[in-house]
Amino acid sequence: MIRTNKDFIVYIDTLRKKSRNQINEQVFEPKTTILKQDRRYNSVYLIRKGIAKCYITDENGKEFIQEFLGEGMEFGELEIFSNNLTICSVTSVSELEVYSFSHGTYRTLLEEDPIFNQLVMKALADKIRYKAPRHSYQHSYPIEDNILRLQRLFPELTEVLPKKDIANYIGVTIRSLNRALKELKLKQENSK
Amino acid sequence: MIRTNKDFIVYIDTLRKKSRNQINEQVFEPKTTILKQDRRYNSVYLIRKGIAKCYITDENGKEFIQEFLGEGMEFGELEIFSNNLTICSVTSVSELEVYSFSHGTYRTLLEEDPIFNQLVMKALADKIRYKAPRHSYQHSYPIEDNILRLQRLFPELTEVLPKKDIANYIGVTIRSLNRALKELKLKQENSK
DNA sequence: GGAATAAAAGGACATTTGTCCCAAGCTCTA
DNA sequence: TAGAGCTTGGGACAAATGTCCTTTTATTCC
């Protein structure tokens, strides 16, 4: 659920030693919205530390969380390849340290640095791989299973995140999430 | 819903004029399964003509259709970037003409042909862009809206595809799909 | 510290969707 | 041509989920 890509961080760290001025560091407070949906920006970000959520808001104001981004994950990069508006908003969950690249710098790296190119390519492919089974799973299994899966994979997250975010991630209402949680608790007590 | 990428086809056509032997043409009958989930292959495919469906099957045998691939769409390419098993099965819907690349050829092109590299990069980014709003939409709107959207975008498809595929694409059971279709018909008659 | 605001929890009911059937129509083939 | 096996369509009921509303409990901010 929290996605990471350590290799990317490692490589950018070494890059920065060579050309410090091209890649900036930035820190965002928790709950800062860094990108808003349907806008245009001129930076690509790479997370160095912390967690961000990437989500779509529909016309009714409902949020649907696409993924939680952790160390080494990029955002704002899709707009490099096709000249479109952002599809997601990105908001920091915890304090967030990022590297930021101007579109120009990013493009130059893509063209001139084959390792960078490869890392970006792999990152894109991983995002696709990750999304496919996720939505399929959420459709096919009841809420309870989705919660259990989440708790198993990221026990720490369920304590840090507000219920609303967990619900938005699973794609259900808070009411339904609460119901499922209650029934899980009941089951666990009965099985003692 | 049927995704296409004409630019890619155009470029590969010109490539083939230069080095015909590297890129093969292949034709598949309708309903041929070209890739099976959780396997390993040594080819990447690019659709020249026809439609294929790309889907995940879960443990209960339920299919969940990820996307319908049309002209210029690739499949089997994700496994180039990370050394993993396929996540989707791919089956031809209509007769399917494809170009196929061995992993070796594909890798070489990626490394040595910057235009090819860029086209692949953009294709990956587009796949991500496409998936995000789709699943969000399907969660947020009732089945009826999803059908209407589909009929509006691809009127021809709803006539070619079996109901099962349409249901699997929207992520509901056939029963629910039929119910929604019936109610739509009723509404349309009433509004006359 | 106290008011205002947001988050968490859940009752009651409505709606949606799924499950399990059955039946009609079509296609393929032995 | 009879029957096996799909696909389509839908009835009846069960289960899951959403909506609306209220209450309680944290959190934030003057």
Keywords:
alpha+beta; 192 residues; 5-stranded mixed sheet; elongated; homodimer
- Helical amount of chain A: 40-55%
Quaternary state reads homodimer
Strands across the major sheet of chain A, in which order? 1-6-5-8-3
Largest sheet of chain A: 5 strands, mixed
Largest interface: A-B, 36 and 37 residues
The total of beta strands of chain A comes to 9
How would you describe what is shown here?
Two copies of one chain form a homodimer. Chain A is α+β, with helices and mostly antiparallel strands and 192 residues long. In chain A, 49% of the residues lie in helices and 22% in strands. The first copy, chain A, contains eight helices and nine strands. A five-stranded mixed beta sheet of chain A has the order 1-6-5-8-3. A four-stranded antiparallel beta sheet of chain A has the order 2-9-4-7. In chain A, a hairpin with a 5-residue loop joins strand 5 and strand 6. Chain A starts with a strand and ends with a helix. At the A-B interface, helix 2 and helix 4 of A face helix 2 and helix 4 of B. The structure holds a DNA duplex (30 and 30 nucleotides).
